[in-house]
From TrEMBL:
Pfam families: PP28. The gene is LOC111280944. InterPro entries: Casein_kinase_sb_PP28, HAP28. Residues 39-60 have a biased composition (Acidic residues). It comes from Durio zibethinus (Durian). This is 28 kDa heat- and acid-stable phosphoprotein-like isoform X6. Residues 86-164 have a biased composition (Basic and acidic residues).
Amino acid sequence: MGRGKFKAKPTGQRHFSTPEEMLAGTSSRPRTFKREEAEYREEEESEECGQESGEESDGETEQKHKVTQGIIEINNPNRVKPKNLKARDADTGKTNELSRREREELEKQRAHERYIRLQEQGKTEQARKDLERLSLTRQQREEAARKREEEKAAREQKKVEARK
């Protein structure tokens, strides 16, 4: 039966040291935490001592960083500078360069407008076909209306003859 609030894992049970074991010093727990903490403190102390004696060398490294930083700022292609123009600095005669996609989109729109204009004038092949279909349907409707009128006139004539 395991001790502690956690369930036993299939890899093994947890074991907690009792206060008696801790006082006796027979605990099976590794004492690495105190060692790691002591090493960390030693590193911090050595860095503090190194900073006091190496203040002169820090100035040289700062200058190196400044030099490379300027190069990085100048040659960084990912950095986008804000393009804020004042009204007086704007060149009105300068044409705006369009990207390839924008140019293609404008050409596509212009071609579509030109096609619609030609279609309205009836100069495109599709417009000709549409006009032919329209004329055929008009003829068919006129013929159907004429037949209805003739049938109507024939019915009325039959009614008149039947009354006499």
